[in-house]
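If you are new to this repository, start here. Below is one unmodified record pulled from the training split, so you can see the exact layout before writing a loader.
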Amino acid sequence: MKIMILIVTASVLLFFAIPQAAMAQKDGAPVAALSSHESGESSSNQLQDPPKPDDPPGRKGMYYVMLSLIEAQKGKTAQAKVYAEKALQLLETPIDYKEFHAKGLAHHELGNYDEALVNFNKAIQLNPQWAIQYVSRGNTYHQKNEDNRAIADFDKAIQLDQTLPDAYVARGDIYAGKGEYDRAISDFDKVIQLDPQGSITYLKRADAYYRKDNYELALSDANKVVQYSPKNPNAYQLRAILYASKGDYEPAIADLNKVIQLDPQHKGVYFLRGDAYFLSGDVEHAITDFDQAIKLNPTDAASYERRGMIYSNEGNQDKAIADFDRAIQLRPQNAKAYATRGIAYARKGDRDSALHDFDRAIQLNPQDPFAFFNRGKSHHAKGDYDRAIADFDKAIQLNPQLRNAYHDRGFTYATKGDYARAIKDYSEAIRLLPDSRAYRNRARAYEQSGDNAKAQADRDKANELDKDRP
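And here is the target side for that same chain:
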């Protein structure tokens, strides 16, 4: 399962000579940007210093917009809104396109997206050649889920100024959110051409490569982020995910240790490290990390679910079920939580509860082969062999490489006395992944069919595999 990384994008402030602009977020995508990139004005007109008492209200208002965006960049949402409210008081009657644009940004920060659009439209009407205004309006359209309009605005901004990074970043974020990763990467490429040491864009491009399963290029970009921004916890976190995706859990855990060193409260880090420990077989440390993840965020359904899986694997089904209960309470539409709780009930011997959970999991996600497979096992355990076979059939249809479904369907056929079909299924399971259990079960089927020579050959093979097992 891929994990979405929330990335705060850096930009520059419009007519404010400050190098890092605040950006509100929508699912990790930038939604408000200011840029001095193309204003063409001298720095004396760019609000480098706090306004003086006798400055006009518009200048003071624009200064508070700047402060609002800076606070948003820091994650101080409440203070950002205070500054935005103050800005609106001072920008009650804008006198030029810059003030209308600043007023639009203040409305955007407060979530007043329709009012933001009114002011951006007026700014564009007064000066239709100022590219950054289209970026700001496009970001507001994106916040309103009007992505086609947003992209049209970013296209217009790029048409007016092909060296404006904000437009490429914003458009690339939307493409990435839509799953159009090649287009996103193309936009991020352009930003990197404009600023080869812009670490945040490398991080975004790395995430896009990761979602295309191009781990090598993703890792190369993540390494650049660490090089250019060694104190950015997002860089180490993404690189850890890439290492874990390749099964390299030791460096993944090392990077997650670095994330915790940089930011002990960093979102998701304890879950990720717990998962890396779990996959590497270190159950004790995994539980400790999931405990910490839940302590920091008691509504973290994923950590309850993962901890429940560990408890179930360790044989503590009551604790497992309690964790799955909580995960389902937090996310009632989570099919996987029902499926894993069903496994815990099955292991506990409560087949009716197990079947109920598998039914619900399949209802929520009818494309999950494992839910059908596990429900088939429960039907078999209850002696309902025809329903078991139907579920194994569906699991195989959804995933023709699911060797355990072939094996268990073969076992069910053998239980029904249909040894020819049992042998066929055991043979397919052996082809996909030979193991001694499949050979022994096929030997019994051969024996029941009267083919003692093949039965003995399979028993010999099973013994050979057991002998070679570490």
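Two things worth knowing about this chain: The first strand starts at residue 25 and ends at 26. Confidence is low (pLDDT under 50) at residues 1-47.
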